[in-house]
């Protein structure tokens, strides 16, 4: 595995290997000393051209807990804000000796371009590119589900589980990556959204599509993943009548959560719009694993960096 750009690039064996390594990384985080010497002497650059809190901090924590040096590079206040091209930024990072670059961009395909342009030879990790993909978020979501529900159906991993993903599918890179990964791992996925918030391409994704949240929840899913309504991407409006109408039809209220099976989990990639897409009491309730998702993100991103940069991991993969 040279880069970590898209879930579509992974085989099931590769995805399960990253999840297994994530479990090992998670075990180290309960120790009094959580640092591992694995990546001593390497430099990881976080190239964030789009605002982020959870993902950037998570990648920084992951690299530092593997003993790598970390350089945080933000578009704001850098030469990128002065008009420097992505190519010139990549060449600069190459010249400075970066061993891996974690890139987040509002432009779909930016990570793929960096990985395959020839401008930089080091591994590239996609930390979210436009509305395309967010593969490490999908990995941490699958890791969280596997820790709670793995083997529940009597088969390995997530085989046979039913996951409902609700909300702004159109603008969600998280939704696309989760559909690809969860289906790869054997789960059944149902997307639920207003018609205007479902991409045309979703009809070709390995999932089911519904416009009726109550009907989808009546099937007794094992997990419900709520997505943030991304108002900043909704240029021109008209995606749903009103916020109240959206919350009534597609929000995860206390009443809807109470109808879920006892074992069912509630997830959200954050940040949340409480009282809009999800009730605050549900987000903080006993079936919510939202805070756990954040914690698991560090372990999963440690695993991804390990697979890309640790020499013994690369030898095992070859």
Automatic annotation (TrEMBL):
Coiled coil: none annotated. PANTHER family: ASPARTATE CARBAMOYLTRANSFERASE, ORNITHINE CARBAMOYLTRANSFERASE, MITOCHONDRIAL. The keyword Transferase applies. Keywords: Pyrimidine biosynthesis, Transferase. Residues 2-146 form the Aspartate/ornithine carbamoyltransferase carbamoyl-P binding domain. This is Aspartate carbamoyltransferase. InterPro entries: Asp/Orn_carbamoyltranf_P-bd, Asp/Orn_carbamoylTrfase, Asp/Orn_carbamoylTrfase_sf, Asp_carbamoyltransf, Asp_carbamoyltransf_Asp/Orn-bd. Gene3D superfamilies: Aspartate/ornithine carbamoyltransferase. Pathway: Pyrimidine metabolism; UMP biosynthesis via de novo pathway; (S)-dihydroorotate from bicarbonate: step 2/3. It catalyses: carbamoyl phosphate + L-aspartate = N-carbamoyl-L-aspartate + phosphate + H(+). The gene is pyrB. One of its GO terms (biological process) is 'de novo' pyrimidine nucleobase biosynthetic process. It comes from the Bacteria. It comes from Brachybacterium phenoliresistens. NCBIfam families: asp_carb_tr, PRK00856.1. Catalyzes the condensation of carbamoyl phosphate and aspartate to form carbamoyl aspartate and inorganic phosphate, the committed step in the de novo pyrimidine nucleotide biosynthesis pathway. One of its GO terms (cellular component) is cytosol.
């Amino acid at each position: 595995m040279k880069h970590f750009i898209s879930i579509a690039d992974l085989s099931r064996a590769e995805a399960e290997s990253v999840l297994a390594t994530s479990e090992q990384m998670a075990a180290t985080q309960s120790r009094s000393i959580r640092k591992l010497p694995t990546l001593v002497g390497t430099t990881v650059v976080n190239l964030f051209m789009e605002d982020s809190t959870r993902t950037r901090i998570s990648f920084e924590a992951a690299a530092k807990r593997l003993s790598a040096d970390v350089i945080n590079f933000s578009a704001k206040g850098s030469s990128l804000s002065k008009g420097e091209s992505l190519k010139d930024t990549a060449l600069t990072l190459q010249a400075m000796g970066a061993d891996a670059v974690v890139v987040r961009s509002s432009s779909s395909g930016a990570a793929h371009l960096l990985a395959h342009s020839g401008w930089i030879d080091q591994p590239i990790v996609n930390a979210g590119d436009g509305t395309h993909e967010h593969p490490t978020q999908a990995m941490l979501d699958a890791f969280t589900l596997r820790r709670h529900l793995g083997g529940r159906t009597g088969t390995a991993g997530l085989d046979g589980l039913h996951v409902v993903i609700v909300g702004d599918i159109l603008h969600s890179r998280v939704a696309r990556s989760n559909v690809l990964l969860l289906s790869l791992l054997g789960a059944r996925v149902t997307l639920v959204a207003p018609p205007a918030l479902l991409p045309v391409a979703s009809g070709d994704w390995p999932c089911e599509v519904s416009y009726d949240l109550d009907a989808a929840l009546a099937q007794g899913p094992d997990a419900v993943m709520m997505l943030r309504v991304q108002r900043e991407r909704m240029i021109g409006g008209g995606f749903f009548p009103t916020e109240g109408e959206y919350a009534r039809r597609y929000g995860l209220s206390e009443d809807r959560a109470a109808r879920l099976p006892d074992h069912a989990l509630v997830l959200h990639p954050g940040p949340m719009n409480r009282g809009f897409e999800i009730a605050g009491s549900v987000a903080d309730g006993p079936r919510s694993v939202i805070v756990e998702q954040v914690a698991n993100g560090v372990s999963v991103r440690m695993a991804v960096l390990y697979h890309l940069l640790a020499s013994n991991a690369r030898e095992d993969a070859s």
